[in-house]
Write a structure and sequence with these properties.
Length: about 120
């Protein structure tokens, strides 16, 4: 269950960030980059996220260089998030992006429409 929750946290962060990550190869690779964020997002979410979380998030955001890549990865991650069936507080996700100093290209909302 813990592994499932950690994977989902990475997925949700990616859905929220709506990024493509061509530098690391795509959806699954982006999840690996974001796994260090899972304990922060799924836990009490106090303090600052781990430095590896911020590094992974920045790397993924840097790869979001076209609308097509963002849409493709958004859809992939939304499908995985729904499949995982775990819910994460969007406010915790916003805290991660703010604390890491990462500007995201869309509103923080797990229900974002990936087609736009």
């Amino acid at each position: 269950m813990e592994k499932k929750m950690m994977t989902f946290a990475g997925l949700v962060i990616m859905v929220v960030v709506l990024n493509a990550c061509p530098a690391i190869g795509g959806c699954d690779e982006a999840l690996v980059e974001l796994l260090p964020c899972a304990t922060f997002v799924l836990g009490p979410g106090v303090g600052e996220p781990p430095s590896l979380c911020c590094a992974g998030l920045k790397h993924v955001v840097a790869g979001a260089d076209t609308s097509e890549k963002r849409r493709s990865l958004c859809q992939c991650l939304k499908e995985k998030a729904v499949g995982a069936g775990v819910k994460v507080d969007p406010e915790k996700l916003k805290h991660v992006t703010d604390a890491c100093g990462v500007k995201i290209p869309i509103p923080i909302d797990p229900n974002v429409d990936c087609s736009t």
